[in-house]
Design a protein that fits this description.
Number of strands: 5
Pfam families: B3 (PF02362)
Mean pLDDT: 80
InterPro entries: B3_DNA-bd, DNA-bd_pseudobarrel_sf
Largest sheet: 5 strands, mixed
Strand content: 25-35%
Main location: nucleus
Structural class: alpha+beta
Number of helices: 2
Keywords: DNA-binding, Nucleus, Transcription, Transcription regulation
CATH architecture: Beta Barrel
Order of helices and strands: HEEEHEE
Oligomer: single chain
Number of domains: 1
Helix content: 10-25%
Organism: Vigna unguiculata
Length: 91
């Protein structure tokens, strides 16, 4: 499971700009929508992570270390629902 990782810079900036407290995440191949709390910290350095709900999202989508995920949000829409594209890595 992917845990305790800062969100990508561009996506974190989008979340901060719109002052979201929670986001609804939907994986690319299933219909489960999971509400995730956002953990936003400004000091000592900026950090934006998913909190409660992230473990459920990872479990529903069978995410593990090495999987690539892309968060897609349209800047104009200000929606709290985010589509997540997942690419599984196979070794």
């Amino acid at each position: 499971m992917v845990n305790n990782v800062d969100l990508p810079t561009d996506f974190a900036g989008y979340v901060r700009k719109h002052r979201f407290k929670r986001l609804e995440l939907q994986g690319s191949k299933n219909t489960f929508i999971v509400q995730c709390k956002l953990l936003v910290h400004n000091s000592p350095k900026k950090s934006t992570k998913f909190g409660k709900g992230w473990k459920d999202f990872c479990r529903f989508n069978r995410l593990k270390e090495g999987d690539v995920i892309v968060f897609a949000a349209h800047n104009q829409m200000r929606k709290k629902k985010i589509k997540v594209y997942i690419k599984k890595e196979f070794f």
